[in-house]
Amino acid sequence: MNLQELGAILRQKRDEKGLSLDEAANKIKLSARVIKAMEEGDISDLPHPVYARGFMKSYAEILGFDKVELAEMLNKAFPPSELDEEPEPGPIIKATSNRERNGFKILNLLIMILVFSLLCLGIWFLFEKFKDSSFDGIKQTYNSFFSNSTDETNQTQQNSTTQAPNANNTQEQTTSVNTTPSLPNTPTVSTETTQQIENITQTLEVSTRRSTKLEVTIDEAQTEKVDLAKNQSRVFEFKDDLTLKMSNPNVIKLKYNNQDFTFDYIAGSGEKTLVFPPSATN
Prior knowledge:
8 helices; 434 Repressor (Amino-terminal Domain); alpha+beta; 282 residues; four-stranded antiparallel β-sheet; 8 strands; single chain
């Protein structure tokens, strides 16, 4: 019995059990490609005969073959001469432990921290150097500017001091040359000024602490009777004269031409009459 015949028997047994390739592969924990290669007897898709024999033995046991019968079929399909050959060693893969991986992570982290620290230190150094150089430059410019300004100010003051006596001498010479007797100016009054003086208006402001009655005659032409309420005031304008008759002079306060005006009266005497402009008769 060769490998192809053994594979056909395995496929027939799988069909009898109603298993698909994927289901059989899931049971034996192999890929469907390896299962198909074993059933077709395709040795090119199978590993070394030692491993292929083991795969087929496991597959046949899952399908329910008798162990004695299975051993005979495997011995025929895999002669001892093929099994004596040692399998070629595969590539050696060195497993990396979790401790080594953690060590690499810590080392990488330390390297990153060191690089970042050096970068920050370099930036700080450049900043300090630039700041110092900029400050020195500004300080030199400041000192130079104010030094030049002070020199110019001193020079200007010296020139002014030197030119002052010359100006005084020139002024004295000019005064001595141009001095001539002059007639005193006679003040003149224009017609417009005279009219303004004639049109000057005088004012009398009357304020009261309590309600009172007044009688006002303006320029001997207009007489007006006025009732003033408590804390009320009124301003009268006149050109020539004004006569004021007060019923309660003790509650009256007067301002003549915006100046406080006081007058004498006898308490309880009743009415009081004043004439403005003030005269000796008041």
